[in-house]
Amino acid sequence: MKLKGILIAGGVSLLTLASLAYAADDKLTQLRQQGFARIAIANEPPFTAVGADGKVTGAAPDVARAVFKKLGVNDVVASVSEYGAMIPGLAAGRHDAIAAGLFMTPQRCAAVAYSQPVLCAVEAFAVKKGNTKSIKTYDEIAKDSKAVIGVEGGTTEQKLATAANIPTDRVIIVPDGQSGLKMLQDGRIDVFALPLLSITDLLSKAKDPNLESIAPVQNTPVQCDGVAFRKQDTALRDAFDVELKKMKESGEFAKIVEPYGFSAKAAMSTSREKLCAAKN
Ligand code: 6CS
């Protein structure tokens, strides 16, 4: 009786494990059959970009496309989303992954399954030339009762502004980088905050001699993203990480990210575990 009992119990647990394993691999099988992975992006060069012809580029989609190809998923199909809507969209099944420079924070790490790090960046401010209010940090904005900062909704810059206790009536939420720069040019905000490479791209396109950048913003951390998957898709995430690691070791990863201005070394010298534990 005892042996039979063990066999039945054993049989059930093996069956359960097999079905769990099948379900986990199911997502990768589904993407292979679908022929593409639906990714959320923000259209914030050089992290992510959508050309006039609709072509999706940027360091994050290019890395994701290369890794998915090695997993037998031929391409990525991108949809533009505000940062604050990306994780809800992933959870709702509108995206298969987020490849947008969505930096790892403890809160986001609790909500998604991140790959290992891909793109790392320092924080920057875009300000009027001469920085009339001589703003250099989030704390200085908080202390100057007349200073107004623009940030995009759901971003780490919004989080940094909140952490510096800048009153909400002096934190203006803008939909995208171009709107933020326009508000700065029109004097409706004194500072527009994004990662340095994004600010540099915006300023280079605006060609406005009255604007300049301040970077790195003092007392802000270097932040890194990873490709974000649904919590239940850890088998897909793990398979992604295996190929990402090979690309980092072969030099292929650096060949993709460094022409965009990102440091491969920065991403390779940290880890998801460290970034998800960071108190920033
Ligand atoms: O993850 C974020 O919130 C940040 N990532 C990018 C690429 N831009 C906005 C924000 O800094």
UniProtKB/TrEMBL annotation:
Mention one GO molecular function: ectoine binding
What keywords would UniProt list here?
Signal
The positions making up the signal sequence are 1-23
Q: Which residues form the Solute-binding protein family 3/N-terminal domain?
A: 36-264
Q: Does the keyword Signal apply?
A: yes
SUPFAM superfamilies annotated for this entry?
Periplasmic binding protein-like II
From which domain of life does this come? Answer: Bacteria
Q: Pfam families in the record, alphabetically? A: SBP_bac_3
Q: Which GO terms describe its biological process?
A: ectoine transmembrane transport
PANTHER family hit by this protein: ARGININE-BINDING EXTRACELLULAR PROTEIN ARTP (PTHR35936:SF17), MEMBRANE-BOUND LYTIC MUREIN TRANSGLYCOSYLASE F (PTHR35936)
NCBIfam families given in the database record: ectoine_ehuB
| Full protein name | Ectoine/hydroxyectoine ABC transporter substrate-binding protein EhuB
* Source organism of this protein record: Paraburkholderia sprentiae WSM5005
